[in-house]
Amino acid sequence: MSRQTWNSFEEMRKAAEEGNPQAQSYLGVSYQNGQGVKQDYHEAVKWYRKAAEQNDSVAQCYLGFCYQNGLGVPQEFGEAAKWYREAAEQGDPAAQFNLGTLYESGEGVSKNYAEAVKWYHAAAERGEPQAQFNLGSYYEQGHVVPQDYEKAVEWYMRAAEQELAPAQCNLGLCYQTGRGVPQDTQKAVQWFIRAARQGDKTAQHNLGVHYASLEISDADAAGEVEPTDEAQ
Q: What does DSSP assign to residue 147?
C-alpha cells in the first residue's frame, strides 16, 4: 500500500485529527523525533495507537518499539510482541525483524530460535539489512538451519551492499577464509575497508593484521627479519 503525503505539517495534523491512520502514524513519528513539534513520547504513543487500532502496520511497528523500549509507556515486552506481530503479519519488514529479535531473546514471548529465523527470513526477503545479516549468521553457524556457507555469503552480501558494516566485515572474513566463496584476499580487504570506514572495530583489527603481515612478508623477502628461536 502506497503511503500518502501532505503539503504541510498542519495539513497532516488536520488529516490525523479527522481519523486518517497514515497521518496519525506520521504525526506520531513527528512527536517521537521532535520534528515540527516538541518531542513528546506520550503524544507519539497516543497517535500511534489511534493508527495502530485502524490496522496501520507502520504505526503498529512503532507502537511495539515504544513498548519494547519504554518510550511514553511502561516497558512491556508482551505488548511489544503483540504489536510487532500485528504489523509483521501484514508484511512490515521492520516489525518482522523486531519480532524475530524478541523470539531470539525470549522477551515477551517464549524463546524460540526457529520462530526467530522464520521472521528474520521474512524480513530479509523484503530487504531488511539487519535481518539479512542475522540470517547469514544462522547459516554460517548452522544454528537452527543447516550450515550453508554459500547461503551465509548470499545474505551477508545483500546486507553488505546496503552498507551494514557487520555484514561487510563478515563477508570479508568469508573471502579471507574461502567460506562459501573462492578465497580472495583482495576482495576480503575491500570489504574490511568498507566496514572499517564505518567504525567497525573487528574490520579495523582485521585490516591491521593484514597490513602488518604484508610488512613482515616484505621485510622477510628483503632479508630484514632476523630468525628467532622464541616461541610465537
A: P
Put residue 178 in one of left, alpha, beta given phi > 0 → left and psi -120 to 50 → alpha: left
Q: Could you give the C-alpha distances from 154 to 27, 47, 130, 150, 180, in angstroms and in order?
A: 38, 39, 14, 6, 9
Residue by residue, DSSP assigns 149-182 as HHHHHHHHHHHHTTT-HHHHHHHHHHHHHTSSS-
d(CA 28, CA 16): 10
At 163, list the grid cell. Answer: 552498507
Closest CA to 120 of 102, 110, 132, 111: 132
Residue in the block written with cell 542475522: 134
Secondary structure letter of residue 112 according to DSSP: -
Is the CB of residue 6 less than 8 Å from the CB of residue 18? no
Question: pLDDT tens digit string along 122-171?
Answer: 999 999 999 999 999 999 999 999 999 999 999 999 999 999 999 999 99
**Cell numbers at 49, concatenated:** 495507537
181: enclosing H helix or E strand: none
Contacts with 170 (C-beta within 8 Å, 6 or more apart), sequence order: 133, 136, 137, 140, 152, 156
